[in-house]
Design brief:
Elements lengths: L4 E2 L10 E6 L5 H12 L5 E8 L7 E2 L4 E3 L31 E4 L5 H9 L5 E7 L15 H11 L4 E6 L9 H14 L2 E5 L2 H7 L11 H10 L4 E3 L7 E3 H4 L2 E4 L5
Parallel strand pairs: 1-9, 2-3, 2-7, 3-6, 7-8
Antiparallel strand pairs: 4-5, 5-6, 8-12, 9-12, 10-11
């Protein structure tokens, strides 16, 4: 990857209200929280959240499709069976209504976009852990929650940036395909640059002991401990991924995909 390094704090976000949202559910809330904390400043208000297909009855309902993980809800001890639930979302700090849960139903995407618009955010940063969001789906091929949520965000007509944390950590794309995707992204201008990963890693570390070792954010941290130049990602395709990719945060303009 030849993307240029860029500072994580962008001058244009100062004084803005910003939503940082995990696109694909799961541990994306951890990455979204880490990005939010890494760019926070007294001059901008940042809200973080995650995307889910379901919202449990104990969440606080804000709109028809937007919920809040209330401060009174307990933090779960066992996260081994957290898939499809908001268990992981409950371990991140709660403040200013965070974390928000966006319930995404494919036939309700326009309604969710309208509900997000009413928050009057100046900018939205979508966060995907691993990079499956970068795969172009063929016609008729099933798209994931992350692709649908990115469509929702773009439909709000609010400026949207995409940050991919830990390229390849989800194991859903081969190394060769990821290489081609990055080369194409550099060619068409959608890849804006590499962000400073150090502050993001610092916040990922907060949850290392709580999450199972196979979760994407912990695999990223294992890459930091790895003495080799590449590491086997023990998920899905089980690709060998350069540790430099796993320890990266890439900034994209999704409108240029």
């Amino acid at each position: 990857m030849y993307a240029t390094e860029k500072p994580l704090s962008w001058k244009e976000i100062q004084g803005q209200q910003i939503l940082v949202v995990g696109l694909g559910g799961g541990a994306d809330i951890i990455s979204a929280y880490a990005v939010a904390k890494a760019i926070e400043s007294p001059e901008c208000k940042i809200v973080y959240g995650n995307t889910k297909r379901v919202a449990e009855s104990d969440l606080t309902q804000i709109t028809e499709h937007i919920f809040e993980v209330g401060k009174s809800l307990s933090v779960p001890n066992d996260l081994s069976d957290a898939f499809g639930t908001t268990k992981v979302d409950r371990i991140v700090p709660r403040c200013q209504g965070c974390p928000l849960i966006f319930k995404l139903l494919e036939d309700k995407k326009p309604l969710l976009a309208d509900e997000i618009k009413k928050y009057n955010f100046d900018r939205i940063i979508g966060v995907d852990t691993g990079g499956d969001i970068l795969q172009t789906k063929k016609e008729g091929e099933k798209r994931g929650l992350d692709h649908h949520m990115l469509e929702v965000l773009l439909a709000t007509e609010i400026p949207v940036s995409l940050v991919v944390v830990g390229l390849g950590s989800d194991g859903e794309t081969s190394r060769d395909d990821l290489q081609k995707i990055i080369e194409n992204s550099e060619g068409n201008g959608s890849l804006q640059g590499k962000l400073d990963f150090a502050p993001i890693k610092q916040y990922l570390e907060q949850f290392r002991e709580q999450l199972p070792e196979y979760r994407t954010t912990n695999l990223i941290l294992q890459a930091n401990d790895c003495s080799e130049t590449e590491m086997l990602v023990p998920r899905d395709l089980r690709p060998m991924i350069p540790t430099s990719w796993l320890l990266s945060a890439l900034l994209f303009d999704p409108k240029k995909f």
